[in-house]
Amino acid sequence: MPRYAHIVGWGKYAPPNVVTNSDLAQKINTTDEWIRERTGIAERHIATEKESTAMMAINAARAAIESANVSSLEIDLVIVATATPEYQFPATACLVQSAIGAERAGAFDLEAGCSGFVYALSAAAGMIRGGMYNTILVVGAETLSRIVDWNDRATCVLFGDGAGAVVLRGSDQPGGVMASVLGSDGSGGELLIVPGGGARHPAGPETVLSKMHYVRMNGREVYRFATRVMVEASQIVVERAGWSLDQIDLFIPHQANGRIIESATKALKLAPERVFVNLQNYGNTSAASIPIALCEAIDADKVEPGDHLLLVGFGAGLTWAACAIQWTATKPGVPALRHRAATGRLRYAWAGFKALGWRLLRRTDAAVSKVLTR
User: Fold this and answer.
1) Best CA proximity match to 302, nearest among 251, 342, 235
2) What residue ranges do the domains of the chain occupy?
3) Of 225, 220, 318, 303, nearest to 264 (Cα)?
4) Low-confidence ranges of the chain (pLDDT < 70)
5) Distance between CA atoms of 5 and 167, rounded to whole angstroms?
6) Catalytic site positions
7) Rounded distance, CA 215 to CA 330, Å?
8) Fold for domain 4-326?
9) Sign of the CA dihedral 317, 215, 157, 55?
């Protein structure tokens, strides 16, 4: 009997600190009108010093788990899609795994730029369909404000911070992630890149002074690429799912640029009411963009059981990805969520206590071993 991978829970986190276009206009040579006209962005959420990729991912993950009404111990795998990990290693997913108390779960990060969440969602769905795992947490989280040059108006106005997460679960009931398309063209890697900090250009005085740790983007070429692959990937994944475009109830594209979304919408001949856009409030949050948009669409009652959803992303790599989803989940009521959140707080506090205990035990063991070997 075939297995299906259903989204059964969802959650998001956005830093409370909001930076408007007018705020940016006071610091760099730009205007609210200039930014809105070229991007469609009005404001973005920017992390404070106390907020980071792992912190936001953990908050989104907890919300998704509470929405799904599953125990952390039921989670088999944690995947975090991010281009701005907490550290080079360990994986941010491992930090999330510990914080949510998913003691039986494996964990890894996935880096596919702004396509990362759909890549991770597709990988998770494949593992569930193949019988390897049954319950997988997928997170898209970014702190892009850490890697943009705030003196470069061509890039700093585009990006924001945030995280979104979903819980995927296996079932014999048809539905869920019905088809996926993943693509890449590494010949365009230099079009959207952070050149410093890797093996090619290790961090040092030269890379810092040359601003090689900031995002560099060829906006014109990325625009041309995005408008083409969004349409092509959408058409292919809908066909693979056995649907037609007129069956799509909601199109949730990567929130990078209003003009790109409008161009894709027209090419696919989708009515505006069937397209979800929250770009104006968040900017481009890379791998967090689509899951945040999905959560907001659900909150706005734009997603109902039986709906056909089309998710499409594109980004650095160059990469692109699309998923066709037959929605089956119902939105939990507020009283249920409050009860689950209260229970969750106890569970997460216990997970933190246990993690602290393991750290202290390791340090004690190391100290004893040092004494005994003298």
Assistant:
1) 251
2) 4-326, 333-374
3) 225
4) none
5) 10
6) 114, 254, 284
7) 39
8) Peroxisomal Thiolase; Chain A, domain 1 (3.40.47)
9) positive
